Prior knowledge:
The protein is α/β, with parallel strands linked by helices. The protein has 2 domains: 6-52; 58-314, 2-enoyl-CoA Hydratase, Chain A, domain 1 (Alpha-Beta Complex). It has helices at 9-24, 32-50, 55-62, 70-77, 119-124, 132-147, 165-169, 172-185, 200-207, 225-232, 239-246, 250-256, 274-292, 297-314; strands spanning 78-83, 96-103, 106-113, 152-158, 190-199, 211-215, 219-221, 261-263. Strands 1, 2, 3, 4, 5, 6, 7 and 8 form an 8-stranded mixed β-sheet that branches. Helix 9 links the parallel strand 5 (190-199) and strand 6 (211-215). It is globular. It starts with 8 loop residues before the first helix and ends with a helix.
Amino acid sequence: xxxxxxxxxxxxxxxxxxxxxxxxxxxxxxxxxxxxxxxxxxxxxxxxxxxxxxxxxxxxxxxxxxxxxxxxxxxxxxxxxxxxxxxxxxxxxxxxxxxxxxxxxxxxxxxxxxxxxxxxxxxxxxxxxxxxxxxxxxxxxxxxxxxxxxxxxxxxxxxxxxxxxxxxxxxxxxxxxxxxxxxxxxxxxxxxxxxxxxxxxxxxxxxxxxxxxxxxxxxxxxxxxxxxxxxxxxxxxxxxxxxxxxxxxxxxxxxxxxxxxxxxxxxxxxxxxxxxxxxxxxxxxxxxxxxxxxxxxxxxxxxxxxxxxxxxxxx
Length: 315
């Protein structure tokens, strides 16, 4: 991996040492025992570390640049993907990508935020921060799904909606609210997965779903820890305290009944085995769609409404 988290330093050093010894293991003296011992130690520390991650460490893992992004999920899970651009009002938004495709033999509408994998693509996709035209595009896609009775899959990975002046001038809050309304009104199955960051209304806009899943080390919150700290303590230095207070981990949200299930990640996080992670996510989505596919549209809509009403009552 090209990028390593600070708390992974010891693990990375051991893995690098094992790799170095492999390169030297060509002479008469075998280094296999030393390599095995180092590997076992690295794996032991990896398990110990990832079994007790703090909320602030989970935030770091959720933001890891090597985690699989929306494009990776589409490439591996969706056949014949046809992206649809524009909101038919203002223009195209590259942060939220969506279109038609076939998921394991079933036609569907799929959409999600794309953060990009390097500087040029991150700038192109605005770091996954959607503007109003992106959420209006989401509404258009959900309308198409309803018209042709197609299930909807949303893949969430955003720090939040774009906070710029231009976005506010073009009706950011209204676009998010209408997108949430579209989620609630559609009479087709809607399954959502938070694969990294689920930030504020930017995430809720396409995650108000019949089934909402989170990857084990992803986060979902009303505001970023840094934003929360800057408001409450007037300093981002308190981001660690904010991360703990926000209860933004998948484990917290499952306990509160906000999400339906936690999808286990490979040991060491999704960034270590991205293809395996994507396949497991696909299994969860497939199972959910099969269950929801047995229901008629009116029942799906009614159960979704009841789900969120009960959530609010419990709060």
